[in-house]
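@channel sequence for tomorrow's demo:
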Amino acid sequence: MQVYDCIVVGAGIEGSSTAYNLAKNGQNTLLLEQFPLPHSRGSSHGQSRITRMAYGGADYYTEMMKEAYKLWEELEKGSGTTLYKKTGLLVVGKAESNLIAGTVQALRKYSVPFTKLDEQGLQSKYPMLNYSGVQGVEDHIGGVLFADKALAAFQSEFVKHGGVLRDNESMVDIFPGDIVTVKTNKGSYRGRNLVLTVGPWATKILPPLGVHLPLKAVRISVFYWKEKIAGAYGAETFPTFLAASGSGDFDVYGLPSLEYPGLYKLCLHYGPEIDPDRRDIADSSWVLEDMKKFVAKHFPLLEPHPAVTETCIYTNTPDHDLVLDRHPAWRNVIIGTGFSGHGFKLSPVVGKVLSDLVMRKTPSYDLSHFRIDRFQKSSKL
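structure tokens (generated this afternoon):
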């Protein structure tokens, strides 16, 4: 039986980026996906994601994003596909919050162009918003990533570099060792290394391997709201958007009208905890009610009810930091999980980091924030 240098399980954006980086570096790599591609059952589907340098209170992500922008540009050139639209990003919050003070600190530290807006400046520049007692920060190179195209670009470039992609093939079991065996519903595969980027299914796949992480899979309601005035929140007039809904530093995000004509994408950054195989059972009516109140209060030029509703899944950690680490016992098993709804933009760097771990290279970033053992419920073998 053929022995791959690496088997990557999960062809979402993180797994596809990892597989691409491995194949680009000459690693004989197999990428497995449980569903037929493309699909909308995980966390990487849809047409748009926010990209930003602004990260209040976690400037290590700002550092990673400096490279991510360069790597996105490389992928654009290699695939011949436009993946990024520069719209800017507007962050709105209390002056003393991490969302504002922390963002300003991070942008200054890494010399990212930005503008700080006081309450009057915010009202003057963005009359389509209704806010008081807050400030704004504009990240001038924030914007939109075209998600479906980005995912397809990683996968096509992976295959172009000699990678093997098998979809509609679900993993049944893992047999760790110096050579890892992965059993699927269609056969068995062997690899010197294994990368698990399985999204919300990490809550089911990792515990049998002795890895007990406090992960929560949550269903996000993706709302699109009709503009009362055409173009009020279009990409030429309004940037991507982050704000607190009232209970945290970052609870609401928005993207300009790009996917549906005249519809603005505005969503709550959390939702009900779910089983990824039974996602529609959980009640999320409260999410809609919270967002209707938010829209009525702060977005006066949107209709009061969403015109379209879609869904996505986050895999959250308690601290909302990623998990990028080796299995505590089997060092040739690499785990990437817990992307907490903000991992898409980071995926070129995540793929590079995970591939470095596979190839026994020293990653170019401090991974202490992303270790498995930072949780009290760490691996118990």
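heads up for whoever presents: The longest helix spans residues 59-79.
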